[in-house]
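Recap from last week: sequence in, structure out.
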Amino acid sequence: MSQPIASPASQPAPHDNETLRASTIAMLQSQAAALNAVFQRLAKEIEASPTVDAAANQLRLALKIQSQCRTTLHMLLKMIDPAFSRAIKKEQGTAPIPTPAKAFPGHHASPR
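Predicted structure tokens:
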């Protein structure tokens, strides 16, 4: 059985797309704020960690959360201003990406 062809009346109205866009932007803003709050809390708790291993684990988690926050903010920026987002992407594409060996010459990352 074939699907009927969608009539223009069944297509989303432009204001529905704007409503969806606005609610998506609001959700991404909330997500970024929550991730930032968790990152800040973990960063403060690192000082009180009982061992170096516990501090390292918290730092690793905090950096993962910070990375997710950055990704969320980048997605938000893409939605709000696509031209600015493309400019940032182009600029990032010209800069070399630091690797742990280059950033920390004396440090050798352990494989995971």
